[in-house]
Amino acid sequence: MRILSFLLLLLLELPAAAEPFLPGQALDQRLVARVTATALAFMVPRALDAVPVWQLALWGLRGLTTIDPRLAVELRDGTLRLTIDARTLAARAPPEPDDAEGWGDVTAQFVRVGWDASDVVRRAGTQGVLRSFFDELFNHLDPYSRYSPPAEAAADRIRRAGRAGIGVQVARRNGGFAVQDVAADGPAAQAGIHEGDRILAVDGQATQGADLESVNALLGGPEGTRVQVSLRDRDGRTRSIDLVRALVPPETVLPTRVGDLLLLRVTSFAGDTGTRLAHEIERGLGGPHPPRGLVLDLRGNRGGLLRQAAVAAGTLIPEGLVAMTVGRDPAAAHDFRAIGSDLAHGMPVVVMVDGRSASAAEILAAALADQGRAVVVGSSTLGKGLVQTITTLPDGGELLITWSRVLAPLGWPIQGLGVLPQVCTSLGGESLGRQLAELAQGRSMMARALGRHRSARAPLPPAEMLEIRNACPAAEGRDSDLAAARALIEAPAAYAAALLGGQR
């Protein structure tokens, strides 16, 4: 009977002089149980590496130690125990190893005991306890899985949807401010605001003498609120327009004409990046003086939506594999294919990357190189090739769990390895000059390194990944990137030799 009671009941042994509660503090024990149970149930079948419920929960429970080092949680000899200064506060038999709800309840019970015994835990509050639980848990997993508390999660959702505003990009011009670009289907476009219109005032506040940040702040605001903008168009006519702010996806494709090159800087991959890229390619090639080549600048691009990388690839690859994702959950496995047409009609394409290019940016660069549609110039990229799935938790927070690994079209893993460029600029000007000279003769100095890189398969030892990457060390973008891109586009033989190197 004693054994049965031990298995079913939580036995508490509180210290003789427990510290008093702080005024106004209250633990939401039920919320802790629901959040942790929901998270554990979501993670176990989806996490990239198989980890049982009990292990995840035990890692998370050790977040109590992070808050108060006097507390310790251990599972030994079939007993789950919480101690303070080596003295037992709670002991019980653990739930079944795969019982997410049971481990959520135990987590909440142990948090309750730790809360009652520790002033430090009480100061952390319910949200602090939850955050510490997940922080400690994720210390044992990959660097990209994470928990976002409710306020951060709400801000993340707004960022993913887009900032509320009128849908314009503003630039300084001749001592004032002018509309540099207008987002398609945004409030400004619908009201007939055009590129080049000068912004004279916002809600009656003159923009003369203001800075760019202040003007953007005046134009932005909560979704659904009204704003009045006074403008002067290119014909000198002035007018005031009442607009309703809306969530407008950020402008992620910024076009520039550099001599006979069309330079498209892609800053991230948001919900309409693929469409915007297609629009800018068609617009840039449609004038009376079409460019000789197209340069995609992905330097500093930290990524974004994987599907938008596939859509972007479809603007230059008529058909073919863009990337593959593989994971334990069958729903995580997917082939992303280009569905579109080559809007550049075979025009030479160079992609510039650097050590900050990551995720979806790497996927696009890898696809264009592996499919023989572009030459990649720059340095090794970050090597972020893991994909997260997301769920909302009962507290309003969000859980992002890595559930798949991204493979390039030729089968090599992006995670850790990154994209190795066909033309390396991070080794200095002298090396770049030799590379371009060799390419002009139809030979690639990067061919051997590229062959090893493209034949790599996951999982790959870190030492081997580092050795491969060292053929072109990661570095920040530099002026020589664009100079190399121009040299390749102006020398078809060199461009063709570099292009072949990317498919080895």
Largest sheet: 6 strands, mixed
Helix content: 25-40%
Mean pLDDT: 91
CATH first level of the largest domain: which class?
A: Alpha Beta
Portion in beta strands: 15-25%
The termini sit apart by: 70 Å
CATH topology of the largest domain: 2-enoyl-CoA Hydratase, Chain A, domain 1
> Which segments are poorly predicted (pLDDT under 50) over 5 or more consecutive residues?
1-24
CATH superfamily of the largest domain: 2-enoyl-CoA Hydratase, Chain A, domain 1
Gross morphology is globular
Q: What do these coordinates show?
A:
The chain is α+β, with helices and mostly antiparallel strands and 504 residues long. Helices cover 36% and strands 24% of the residues. It contains 17 helices and 23 strands. A six-stranded mixed sheet has the order 14-15-16-19-20-23, with helices on both faces. The N and C termini lie far apart (70 Å). Mean pLDDT is 91; it is low at 1-24.
